[in-house]
Amino acid sequence: MPAPIRLRELIRTIRTARTQAEEREMIQKECAAIRSSFREEDNTYRCRNVAKLLYMHMLGYPAHFGQLECLKLIASQKFTDKRIGYLGAMLLLDERQDVHLLMTNCIKNDLNHSTQYVQGLALCTLGCMGSSEMCRDLAGEVEKLLKTSNSYLRKKAALCAVHVIRKVPELMEMFLPATKNLLSEKNHGNLTKYCDTSSRFCFFDPFLQVRILRLLRILGKGDDDSSEAMNDILAQVATNTETSKNVGNAILYETVLTIMDIKSESGLRVLAINILGRFLLNNDKNIRYVALTSLLKTVQTDHNAVQRHRSTIVDCLKDLDVSIKRRAMELSFALVNGNNIRGMMKELLYFLDSCDPEFKADCASGVFLAAEKYAPSKRWHIDTIMRVLTTAGSYVRDDSVPNLIQLITNSVEMHAYTVQRLYKALLDDISQQPLVQVASWCIGEYGDLLVSGQCEEEEPIQVTEDEVLDVLEGLLVSNLSTPVTRGYALTAIMKLSTRFTSVNRIKKVVSIYGSSIDVELQQRAVEYNALFKKYDHMRPALLERMPIMEKTASNGPTEIVQTNGEAEPSVVEAKHPPPVTQPTNQVRTVFSLYIITKNTSVNGLKIDFTFERANPNPNIAVITIHASNSTEADMTDFVFQAAVPKTFQLQLLSPSSNVVPALNQGTVTQVIRVLNPQKQQLRMRIKLTYTHKGSAVQDLAEVNNFPPQSWQ
Q: What residue stretches are annotated with the GAE domain (predicted)?
């Protein structure tokens, strides 16, 4: 067989390939020749063939068939063979393959070889891919080489010992004596591998200093005594390190991280934060980014120290680098508190006006949260939220609209001011849909305050009922309005039927949208038309102003429900009901309420109310409803909802079933708990929805004839 080509010739040939397919053909041809050579046990060219195989492996082609050949080269007495063999083992083998265990004896022999370079090859291979079994078997040889006087071998033995300890942590004790001896080593490469004390800062080696600082960080974490011993040396490094070059900044940064991680004294922590503050003024954007990230991690524990650099942090909001801008924004929100809320919000709102779209959603959410937590007044809170909606309304999160509605509802003294501000905002811009939705809702609730000019916080505007209705009708036909926004506008117009005198105009608008191609809008209009025609006597009560809403925890028993943007009158649904304590004193009264449904052929749903006094709290009335069905078909998907005036608190527990059986063969029961601390007469609006004979049915009613025993 002719001699195989050399490695450099193979490289030159492969580089002449013009296509991937041509290269693949060359590789396959050469691999076939190498396989033939391996089968013939050709010892002369094994080293050359394995070297070529490793090159092909580096190009991404399979070379696993050369694993055993690597072991044969390792067992060779030639250094050149061993070198390629060990290199192949590190590239082609790992601890997941049983073949690597066959190397253990060869590595052991080479660790005791008379030539330091052969020993070095064995140490590198063991430190690279040695398994836990190999590390246990060869730890003794590594420990001996760690004590040798040869600095070349000590360095490689130190690296190998690190790998051994990571694989078999219980062997750490074996290496500790040798590690202590390394501390007197003059070679910084060895010290970098095994540094164990803070007394080596006299070396002007930044790599060594960084490693020592990282080690101090580990030793001092959670240890009061060790941390106290480090304070002085860390203070010296922090104050004496030269920062004219980047290497000094790297050492200072590691010093800051160490100070922050150990239990350092307060003055030292302030010094560390001041260093980060100086980093913010550095021209290198990487240093500025690192400083902002570090300050963000420490702001919760050292808030006052970070506050001293607030102006510098705010200036970073103007940086051209988007990563720095984002970190500066996050840190700015973390610095907001009750004392600086006005100034910080001014800066952040300016940033919101000019920032890229990718920042607007997070910035708007941050402003909302900060304003809710630290608002100095309700007017300021409302003005701030409206500023966000007018500048970045399209980027705010979905929950911003109901949250602002709740804020406005609960700020009773600000209703006239808010509705006037929102009305003027609508006249200027209707492209920001969240703003338009909140404004529509507010006009529907407080339109009477708008036209009456009762605003005391600013000069009232003169506006007529027709002008208000013109604006809302404009939203219904605008191409900028989303379906949800149109729903808000139509509901607002409907609510104004109890606040304005232009009822006929409102009826016409509502009737027009009864044939809308938007199914949701059409359904609303049909229901509102039915309210005008069949339940007009109930309309004023159903459309009265919303009571004050209280937020409830997500795992609490009740939840305020607002569907598709329509603010219904404090409708409450049961969620995760708590156990009900059975009362001992019971006052029981029974009366019936018959509901006339939309489908006149269905007239068999009956709701009975029974009353009990809760004990020990006499202010709580426990009302149980019993729903029965006298028709011949079951009523499925049955849902009972209720609302009470704002002076009451209502809790609706889960029903016994969602199916009301036909022919009075059973009842659905549901418990209502009503807190009435002022002993006022109980009034309740109820809403029933169910499916009967394939048709969806929805009914509204008001109950105001509760017996005195239920509330006195």
A: 592-707
CA 579, CA 388: separation in Å to the nearest integer? Answer: 43
Q: How much of the chain exceeds pLDDT 90, in percent?
A: 30
Q: Which residues neighbour 362 within 8 Å (Cβ) at sequence distance 6 or greater?
A: 326, 329
Question: Which of 222, 303, 306 lies closest to 263 in space, CA to CA?
Answer: 222
Q: What is the pLDDT of residues 339-374, one digit of tens each?
A: 999 999 999 999 998 888 888 888 998 998 899 889
- Cβ-contact 660, 645 below 8 angstroms: no
Which has the closest alpha carbon to 689: 663, 665, 666, 668? Answer: 668
Q: CATH classification of 7-182 is 3.30.497.10, yes or no?
A: no
Which of 368, 374, 307 is CA-nearest to residue 337?
Answer: 374
Q: Phi/psi at 110 (nearest 5 deg)?
A: -70, -25
pLDDT tens digits for 414-462?
A: 888 888 889 998 998 888 888 999 999 999 999 988 888 777 667 778 8
CATH hierarchy code of domain 595-710: 2.60.40.1230
**DSSP output for 490-555:** HHHHHHGGGTSS-HHHHHHHHHHGGG-SSHHHHHHHHHHHHHHHT-GGGHHHHTSPPPPP----TT
Residue in the structure block whose two tokens are 């590239």 = 91
DSSP symbols for 55-94: HHHHTT---GGGHHHHHHHHTSS-HHHHHHHHHHHHHH--
Q: How would you class 41 by CB atoms within 10 Å of its CB: exposed for 0-12, middle for 13-18, buried for 19 or more?
A: exposed
Q: What is the DSSP letter of 412?
A: G
Euclidean distance between CA atoms 31 and 61, whole angstroms: 10
- The structure's pTM equals 0.55
Q: Are 118 and 111 in contact (CB under 8 A)?
A: no
First-last CA distance in the chain: 112
| Rounded CA separation 16/23 (Å) | 8
Alpha carbon separation from 167 to 161, 171, 193 (Å, rounded): 10, 9, 17
